[in-house]
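pasting for ref
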Amino acid sequence: MALDHALLVSLLEKPSSGYELARRFDRSIGYFWHATHQQIYRVLARMEASQWIHADVRAGETAPDRKVFTVTKGGRAELSRWMAEPLDPEGTRNALMVKMRGAAFGDPRDLIAELEHHRATHANRLTCYRIIEARDFAGTLDPQRALQYMVHKAGLRFEQGWLEWCEEALDLLRSMKPVTQRRTTS
């Protein structure tokens, strides 16, 4: 997925200035698609040049003028084209998994602090997701909110799965002893 498409979706949800978009992005799509504010501004400029978005300049009373971006017909066409494009499931590239395998060749308990850190990070995210769920997804949802909630549920389940895995991995690491002889090939 290109950042362009994530920004098109976000702008369709709510026309925004670059600053507002970057802040909203951090609190929504940013949970599963990271982008810096600089990247967002660069892509907005490219999308405007491609005529996927249009900017209206709004005079600021107490702040500088700002551009408020909306999606154009061309932007909607691009999003439709991309939505129809098949996606392959994404693979996982995770250094922690390599460390876990490598633990067989040293003291597996050396990874306990690392796993505790991962567990705490995933627990914090899960708590954040649950707060958002209670605040934003209670009651009857319109179709747009229902789709947003489905994405949110994926985040909840992802974090819950990681927490369960971290607990299981920590139990295993705590029960293991250091390897005294390393397996190597000559």
